[in-house]
Amino acid sequence: MRQLRQGRLYLAGVLAGAIGVAAGFSAHAETMMSAMSYAYGSNPTLNAARAEARAVDEGVAQALSGWRPTVTGEASIGQKYTDTNSNSASSSGSSSTSPGNLGVTVNQPLFRGYRTINSTKQAEAAVRAAHESLRNTEQNVLLQAAQSYADVVRDSAIVELRNNNLSVLQEQLRAVQDRFEVGEVTRTDVAQARARASAAQSAVNAAQAQLLTSRATYIQIVGREPKNLKAPQPFTRQIPASLDQAIALSRSDHPAIKAARFSEESAAFAIKVAEGALLPTLSLQGTVDYNTEPSATVNSTFSAQILGVLTVPIYQGGLEYSQVRQAKQTRTQRMLEVDVARAQVQAAVLSAWGGLQAARASIISAQAQIEAASIALNGVREEARVGQRTTLDVLDAQQELLDARVSRVIAERDQVVASVSIYSAIGRLLANRIGLSVREYKPETNAGQVRDKWFGLRTSDGQ
Questions:
Q1: b/e per residue, 31-63, with b = 16+ CB within 10 A?
Q2: Which CATH number fits domain 2-68+112-147+220-278+313-451: 3.40.190.10, 3.90.1150.10, 1.20.1600.10, 3.90.20.10?
Q3: Residues 360-374: pLDDT tens digits?
Q4: Which of 10, 57, 76, 463 has the greatest number of C-beta atoms within 10 Å?
């Protein structure tokens, strides 16, 4: 009985915060912010999105190349044999020459139907869309990191609670068996205690399996093993005061909406690019040629010319007209996608806001339930000692207290995730906005480096 009393005290006092992994943390305990910081640098999804944005950056350099000259060189050498047979003896005979050619052509576009200007604007808008899309990916990865962190902490706490509950039930089973041997309880009481202990063991197994799943997700998102995780705190500093304010902020700040707007802008310039194919083009072309032994009687020739070339498209099978119509339809799609992005972001704000309010209410409710269930359990145990309650009553009271503690663990996890989700929904879950201790990746840096590059094969990351 003395051991049973100690088990009761332990059950009442363990995990007072209901979300810590253990009763103490080492000096190097990991925090949710440190996990998010590590994911910021190591997550492959985020790094792939950065590489994708860098690839889009090259579109501006490609568009600007329309202003620049193209230079081509041509060289040839061979052997030529000629055998001539005619009525005139002076014209008959055979010859062997080694003709060679060396030429350089420079072509400078002067007017391309405004396609260079509009292609540049199209590419610049695409770059801005890619950068906002990258920021949206950054938000999603950081949210996943925070969620996986909170999941591991939650599941660790639940495992701890269920292990402790199993220990108490096993101790209670031994106590009931002792009382059965002296005739104080019936075989039914022993069976009830044994059934609850077996069920508790199954619950421990299920909780451990869930913890393994959460740890695997954490490793996938963050990139390292979860060790000594500190209980996370909800984000509260920059959460808007009202739902309407949160929705307004999301419409102006969320990168998914910005990306959709820039994509629509890029599609609008794509129409002008397609229309430019119907306009004349003008270029300046210079050619230098040097030929050796072009014939049996000529040793070499040298020529140079400069031409103004005007090309006027008249009809080319209807391809350009189809491309213009296609570009217009694409722009219509992009315009509708802006509305889709707004609706999705607003739904995310509403969901996160509702989840946060529900989690806060659940924490208050679970705390009240814990306090009431603790009082009830103590009372039922005392009444059972004097024969006024059965073993089943005690087991039910213990289960109610356990369920309340598990509910509080889940609610506190939900509060953390919902608060971080609000940050994401309003477009502020970014490394520089939440103060992560990382070297910020700025996509504009690479865009500026490659914009005016005329030569070079190496990328900004050294490839």
A1: bbbbbbbbbbeebeebeebbeebbebbbbbbeb
A2: 1.20.1600.10
A3: 999 999 999 999 999
A4: 57
